[in-house]
């Protein structure tokens, strides 16, 4: 069964689609009320975020657009130190989409939301002309302890930069799918609750934290360096990249510094916390390849350098132009 | 200047686009922090909602997709009795979109958000292939007093149904634009804060309330009738429709019961509150044509009837199939 324009009418066809595909998968006491706004419990300090997902192909090794749409928003909330709580999702569905595809995506969203401890409380569905494409927007709300203060502007001289795992897996997966290159690279797409909770519960003072998505590590660290008016210096040999992705990059001329990831984060912590933080991340889900990759110095404000394997020093700029369209 | 795929990279081009187009218009102390999640103040009871907007044309008499994207989410929050507070927006922009168009839309969003007293706290921008189309998702958070209990399942025998103004203006506007029909019909697209605040401040006990958008009045009232297991009976001669929209409907064979509106609401209130509620709505912004259009009876559960001008009784069903694609 395929999506028709009637599924976007707001009437009975829309209602049937919602019941059959989404309500079944996402059901919970708040969503089931089917009012226009969901009513949820509040707290003193809220985190709010939103992300739209336009990745193509919509199903790829290691995930799909549904899984990605939950991970992306959950991770954005986590990066502010919030406990993810409630999520809304808006679907823009092209005519001709197979209802079965939609069901698979809804199932995948429900599974990931459960794993990430976030409740889907409201949704919206629109249908547009086209040929089977799907776009998903998710917006999330989380609660933050009053004591937490994580910000890209908090990096200080001497702080340590930890990366939670291998770079480039998601990017290489999507590009391989598009170019029909056969390999066993899988997207790293994952919710990082366990990792962040471990750091917060163990009172690691996180200065800055960001998931390394579109724009890549280079862009994130430049944002830190600019916001904190500091210099960040990395050691090339410390940066974890799998052998398979390394070869992939060599063949296609890609730079892991600018490749998108969907289950990796970079954290800046004080030097005294850094070894403990590294151990906590390594012992968390999805953190086994974490590494200390550099530190904050004050030599030149607002810049990122990497000390290369062959002894050079290379300036890492923010990504300009297009990494890979529709990577997330 | 046109949108290119590079504007969706997550790097410098994206950042420039955000700064030049969105940050300028939406600037406020929370958004300006430019973190991945916005941190806002909370409350005990939260309302959350989301809506995607795919209307075409993106600019139409009486509004544009930006204005609409704020009104839609603000009105959804209001309908639950919440005070709208914070809003996130996700843009999916087709390549080739004029940056000037985007600027105009951002300006319009900022203006409407200000009028509706809601703060834009987070955003996301994606670029896809295409030809100048724009899709906007907004998600909103509002706070609700613990005492408020508005729900489509609260309608009771004897309650009165009030419609806040003329039906069909938005629908007729979009259809006229698409068919290049010249007339002076304008979209009713508007935020209904003033109207709802007046009702709540004056302690009107609102049983059920809904903005009458996609799917039309017929669909909303059927949802009430089903959720409350009641029958709703309307008087055709009481239902406000402007002369121009009436003629438009006659020519094109449209039924105002299923036409989309973007600045109209229907409220179900107790009989003793109904005259006061009507007066309050009439004295509110956008409420001058409000009317009592019917009442709740218990003759047959879960149905909506209209007593027609010529003395008949017609069953009003939920809209099945397509009203008008991409109406909102």
Characterize this entry briefly.
Chains A, B: Residues 35-144 form the PurM-like N-terminal domain. Chain A is α+β, with helices and mostly antiparallel strands and 328 residues long.
Largest interface: A-B, 80 and 80 residues
- So how many helices of chain A? 8
CATH architecture of the largest domain in chain A: Alpha-Beta Complex
Which structural class should the secondary elements of chain A be placed in? Answer: alpha+beta
What is the global morphology of chain A? globular
Share of residues in helices of chain A = 25-40%
Run of helices and strands of chain A: HEEEEHEHEEEHHEHEHEHEEE
Strand content of chain A: 25-35%
Span of the ends, CA to CA of chain A: 27 Å
Strand order, largest beta sheet of chain A? 9-11-8-12-10-13-14
Tally of individual domains of chain A: 2
- Looking at the chains present, what oligomeric state does this protein adopt? homodimer
Spell out the key features of this protein.
PurM-like_N_sf (chains A, B), 26% strand, Phosphoribosyl-aminoimidazole Synthetase, Chain A, domain 2, 328 residues, PurM-like_N (chains A, B), alpha+beta, 60s Ribosomal Protein L30, Chain: A, 4-stranded mixed beta sheet, homodimer, HypE (chains A, B), Hydrogenase expression/formation protein HypE (chains A, B)
